[in-house]
Amino acid sequence: MSSILIVEDSPDNMKLFRTLLELKGHVVTGLANGDSLLRALDERAPDLVLMDIQLPGRDGYELLAEIRRSRRPQLRVVALTAHAMTGDQERALEAGFDGYISKPIDIRAFPAQIEHHLSQQSPDRPDVSSAERS
Ligand code: MN
Fold first, then answer.
1. Ligand 1 centroid vs 55 CA: distance in angstroms?
2. Which CATH number do you get for residue 80?
3. Ligand 1 centroid to 11 CA: how many Å?
4. 127 assigned to some structural domain
5. What is the pTM of this model?
6. Is 55 helix (H, G, I), strand (E, B) or coil?
7. How far is the centre of ligand 1, averaged over its atoms, from the C-alpha of 56 (Å)?
8. For residue 53, is it within any domain?
């Protein structure tokens, strides 16, 4: 059982992701925008964050940069990318996401994709914010 935080502005997608992950026994927190995510991360550290790239307000790239800069550099964050957006997957990895899952998801493959990401070692990224302070 892991705690998974999902940021996704499509209620239909959120319902699907939540259902599939809760079936696997995970504890899912669903948030609809980036500001809610940043507030949530100030209070707790989920095992995994799934983040839609295309969000109202700050998009996934801006949010990831903010998270890496000042909050939790070690946090595993997987991008949810739209199939139609060519280049988003490469861009997501270059931007520092720990992986990506393309939408629409493959319902049968999705749980295993999540387990794969949960089984990965926490990335060894330097804590930039503390380095800057010292
Ligand atoms: Mn979206």
1. 5
2. 3.40.50.2300
3. 10
4. no
5. 0.89
6. coil
7. 7
8. yes
Please give the distance, rounded to the nearest whole angstrom, from the Cα atom of residue 133 to the centre of ligand 1.
35
Q: How far is the CA of 54 from the centre of ligand 1 (A)?
A: 4
Counted domains in the chain: 1
User: Is-contact 120 98, C-beta < 8 A?
Assistant: yes
Residue range 10-20, pLDDT digits in tens: 999 999 999 99
Q: 79: domain range?
A: 3-106
Per DSSP, the chain holds a count of helices (H) and strands (E) of 6, 5
Q: Please give the distance, rounded to the nearest whole angstrom, from the Cα atom of residue 134 to the centre of ligand 1.
A: 38
The pLDDT tens digits of the residues spanning 50-82 come to 999 999 999 999 999 999 987 788 899 999 998
